[in-house]
Amino acid sequence: MSDSRDDNRRIKDPEQYDALREEGMSKEKAARIANTDREAAGQKGGRHPEYEDWSVDALYEKAQQIGIGQRSEMSKDELIRALREH
Known about the structure:
Elements: H1 5-10, H2 14-22, H3 27-34, H4 38-41, H5 56-65, H6 76-85
Helix pairs in contact: 2-3, 5-6
């Protein structure tokens, strides 16, 4: 079950959210998935170059934007892995 009533008011699919949280997913990621419109979820999104083609500075900036910690200690490969796993 989700942590508070406030969470449930903002979540469109609380059962899916709770299942994702039980699997160990972060609150943010579980909420994004549970709040995605089912029709829109199957559509292809935008495209960007593969992370391997990004500079270390660009990877660092993206990691900073989404809140990945300890990024200053990460190599390029570690930044790529962290971004893909987020």
